[in-house]
Amino acid sequence: MENIRRYETVIVISPSLAEKDISNIICDVENFIKKNKGEIIYSEKIGIIDLAYKILNNTKGYFYFCEFSIDAVNIIDLDKLYRINESIVRYVIVSLCKHGIKYNEALRNSKTTVKQNIFLSKVKTVIEQKIIDFSKKMYCRFKRFGIKYVDYKNVNFLIHFLNPQGKILPRRLTGNTLKYQKKVATAIKRARHLSILPFVCDNLK
């Protein structure tokens, strides 16, 4: 019995590769999804981006994003495909809940690309329009504004939950409920893993 689920994946490819080799890696990922009766909902070649910290002496990485649906059994094999390819220096595979699916659809409807969502501070995304000011009365902003999904790719939003040294702010300062504090922490950890957020710094904001 098939267990079709919606996923999204972000891979960081070594920038030292030729464009043809990068395209081959992307084709391998997309062909794997299609061969296993999966469907690509949306994909984007984000391009070469500066990393928050060095990965294997690389200060830049080629980012690729893909949202797809596939039988959950095949995710283990996709993970193996990433691991055996030494040119893929970082990756994440995230199972999307119904709120994550709606969030991605809202971004596409607003014509906001994944690259804009991650890296361009002037772009106002779905969540980022809910400006957070912790100097005011403490309460859970997620419940107040009806925010259901915390996107690990929305760096400009996640920065609000970090102090200038890059540490996650505690609940006593943010006012988050335990449920949303865990979601924020998970999103920040994924962003750090992809090197779009630093682990530590001197003056993050």
Description:
The chain has helices at 19-35, 75-84, 98-109, 114-119, 141-145, 155-158, 171-174, 178-193, and strands spanning 4-13, 39-55, 58-71, 88-95. 36% of the residues lie in helices and 24% in strands. Strands 2-3-1-4 form a four-stranded antiparallel β-sheet, with helices on both faces. By secondary structure, the chain is of the alpha+beta class. It has two domains: 4-95, Alpha-Beta Plaits, CATH 3.30.70; 115-193, Ribosomal protein S18 (30s Ribosomal Protein S18, Irregular). The chain has eight helices and four strands.
What's the short version?
The chain is an alpha+beta fold. The chain is built from eight helices and four strands.
Provide the descriptors you would attach to this structure in a database record.
2 domains, 4 strands, Alpha-Beta Plaits, 205 residues, 8 helices, alpha+beta, 30s Ribosomal Protein S18, 4-stranded antiparallel sheet
Number of helical segments with 4 or more residues: 8
β-strand percent reads 15-25%
Spatial sequence of strands, sheet with the most strands: 2-3-1-4
Instruction: Give the overall silhouette.
Output: globular
Give the number of domains: 2
Sequence of secondary-structure elements = EHEEHEHHHHHH
Mean pLDDT over the residues: 86
Mind telling me the CATH class of the largest domain? Alpha Beta
Q: Helix coverage percent of residues?
A: 25-40%
CATH superfamily of the largest domain: Ribosomal protein S6/Translation elongation factor EF1B
Largest sheet: 4 strands, antiparallel
- Cα Rg: 17 Å
CATH topology of the largest domain: Alpha-Beta Plaits
Cα-to-Cα separation, first versus last residue: 49 Å
